[in-house]
Design a protein that fits this description.
This protein is mainly β. The protein is built from 1 helix and 3 strands, in the order E-H-E-E.
Length: 61
């Protein structure tokens, strides 16, 4: 189990499917939340089941 923060650029279509696709390569999401929105870019924070190292998302300057 590990924390994960990602930036995702929203595309046309259902948002939930896009979030699931963005999280899938990182492991099985236990929970997730959209923590920031800037234009079409979302910042997601999640807890996933995975053995990969954590990634980060920094706010824009």
């Amino acid at each position: 189990m590990r924390p994960l923060t990602l930036r995702v650029r929203r595309q046309p279509g259902p948002l939930l499917a896009q979030i699931r696709v963005a999280l899938a390569p990182h492991g099985e999401p236990l929970r997730w939340a959209i923590t920031a929105v800037q234009g079409e870019e979302l910042c997601l924070e999640a807890v996933v089941l995975s053995s990969a190292p954590p990634t980060g998302c920094k706010p824009p300057p």
